[in-house]
From TrEMBL:
Pathway assigned in UniProt: Cell wall biogenesis; peptidoglycan biosynthesis
Described purpose of this protein according to its UniProt entry: Cell wall formation. Catalyzes the addition of glutamate to the nucleotide precursor UDP-N-acetylmuramoyl-L-alanine (UMA).
Cell compartments where the protein resides: Cytoplasm
Natural source organism: Coprobacter fastidiosus NSB1 = JCM 33896
GO molecular function terms listed in the Swiss-Prot or TrEMBL record: ATP binding; UDP-N-acetylmuramoylalanine-D-glutamate ligase activity
Gene: murD
Catalyzed reactions: UDP-N-acetyl-alpha-D-muramoyl-L-alanine + D-glutamate + ATP = UDP-N-acetyl-alpha-D-muramoyl-L-alanyl-D-glutamate + ADP + phosphate + H(+)
UniProt cross-references to NCBIfam families, sorted A to Z: murD
Pfam family, one: MurD-like_N
Mur ligase C-terminal domain location: 309-421
Designated name of the protein: UDP-N-acetylmuramoylalanine--D-glutamate ligase
Keyword field: ATP-binding, Cell cycle, Cell division, Cell shape, Cell wall biogenesis/degradation, Cytoplasm, Ligase, Nucleotide-binding, Peptidoglycan synthesis
KW Magnesium (keyword) present: no
Annotated EC: 6.3.2.9
Length: 445
């Protein structure tokens, strides 16, 4: 009898995992508590995969030999509790896909900057002529690509949720950009649980593999001592320090990688701002470890187009700049956004709070922000923290209201910044939906 695989959740990750399982000859069943999008229904139907949506038929799930869980489903979900009681193994789509490919895996995680670094790394590798796929939190499902394509390399953005159910998977190159509090609601409000999830990116690495990380992150440097890492270490830092493999000096990025040194002037980088220096360093080291030519790396760093919803310039209206940073779903992301601002700011904040500590941005807010527009169902925590720290603070219950109020507050030469610090699910479908609505409202001004 064929081994039975049940896939929970039929988004990009789940639908892709189901196709790979089917192609590999498993008996496959897909179950999603929400309604499955038409595109994914069509994909499942094309491969003649049985599916259900709007419910979980528990008897059809509990007869699985193995369960592939979409990253968005928390361990506290009743269906997961039932599966755990039965002792059925639960893995992630990435773990499953890794079993069926010998491609080199370049894996990137961090609380912030991972999408930008993933897309930049992919851009450099692709432009250098490598046969490379883009997967994980961006791009197409890794499992679907393993089932239907034939890449030699994959650049994969991994969230802590994806790392949680990865066990034997190995990153040939692992990148850890930073660790700051995020998603604590999913980790029992225990920071160490979240840190442990992030460090799973280094598991199973051998002396032939590379681990690239930010040397000045206090959490990472403390954790390094607790982990017996086998991989070659490639720390990067803003300043030249002992042992670091990338740093800035005389307005240049310097990459001291194996056999060679690469330099590029900071002004030549497509991505500006301090945090983007780190993203550029991490991507450059990855490329150097893969022996990509210096000219190709420089070229990729110069002509990369940024990431949508991440410090994305939308328009200038009557001298007021509007910037969409909807992807800033935690406080540290907003810190980076404010840190890169060169004008006074009208800040649009708020959404579903994940246990945020706003003291991290307090000084930058006092220094740069003239007004805060709170855009959320419940803004009481924002008012409690920021009242009296900015000249003006008010509420909005829709994106149009938020943009109109921000524009009314803004003086010529100032910037309206949407950098919410929070998840979007109280008023919007996703951070993308929130960013699209922002752009639409700005264009209608």
């Amino acid at each position: 009898m064929n081994k039975r695989i049940v896939v929970l959740g039929a988004g990009e990750s789940g639908a892709g995992a189901a196709v790979l399982a089917k192609v590999k000859g498993f008996d496959v069943f897909v179950s999603d508590m929400s309604l499955i999008k038409d595109t994914y229904k069509a994909l499942l139907n094309k491969y003649e995969i049985e599916w259900e949506d709007g419910r979980h038929s528990i008897e059809k799930i509990l007869n699985a030999d193995e369960i592939i869980k979409s990253p968005g489903i928390p361990d506290t979900a009743p269906v997961i509790r039932e599966i755990q009681k039965e002792g059925i193994p639960i893995i992630s789509e990435i773990e499953f896909a890794g079993r069926y490919t010998h491609a080199k895996m370049i894996c990137i995680t961090g609380s912030n900057g991972k999408t930008t670094t993933t897309l930049l790394t992919y851009h450099i590798l692709k432009n250098a002529g490598l046969n490379v796929g883009l997967a994980g939190n961006v791009g197409k499902s890794l499992a679907l690509q393993v089932a239907t394509e034939n890449f030699d390399y994959y650049v994969i953005e991994l969230s802590s949720f994806q790392l949680d159910n990865m066990y034997k998977f190995k990153a040939d190159i692992a990148v850890l950009l930073n660790i700051t509090p995020d998603h604590l609601d999913r980790y029992g409000y225990d920071m160490q649980n979240y840190i442990n999830a992030k460090f799973r990116i280094t598991q199973n690495q051998t002396p032939n593999d590379a681990f690239i990380y930010w040397n000045d992150d206090p959490i990472i440097t403390k954790e390094l001592k607790a982990h017996d890492l086998k991989a070659r270490l490639y720390p990067f830092s803003e300043e030249k320090e002992e042992g670091v493999k990338a740093y800035t000096e005389n307005n240049q990025i310097v990459i001291d990688a194996p056999n060679d040194t690469l330099t590029i002037t900071e002004d030549d980088l497509a991505l500006q701002g301090r945090h983007n220096l780190y993203n550029s360093m991490a991507a450059s080291i990855s490329a150097k470890v893969l022996d990509i030519k210096k000219e190709d790396i420089r070229e990729g760093l110069k002509d990369f187009k940024g990431v949508e919803h991440r410090l994305e310039k939308v328009a200038r209206v009557r001298g007021v700049e509007f910037i969409n940073d909807s992807k800033a779903t935690n406080v540290n992301s907003c810190w980076y956004a404010l840190e890169s601002m060169r004008t006074k700011v009208i800040l649009i904040l708020g959404g579903k709070d994940k246990g945020n500590d706003y003291s991290e941005i307090e000084e930058l807010v006092k220094e740069k922000v003239n007004a805060i527009i709170c855009l959320g169902v419940d803004n009481s925590k924002l008012h409690a923290f920021f009242e009296g720290k900015v000249p003006h603070i008010e509420d909005a219950s829709s994106m149009k209201e938020a943009v109109d109020k921000a524009f009314a507050c803004a003086q010529k030469g100032e910037t309206v910044l949407l950098s919410p610090c929070c998840a979007s699910f109280d008023l919007f479908k996703s951070y993308e939906d929130r960013g699209e609505q922002f752009k639409e409202c700005v264009r209608n001004l």
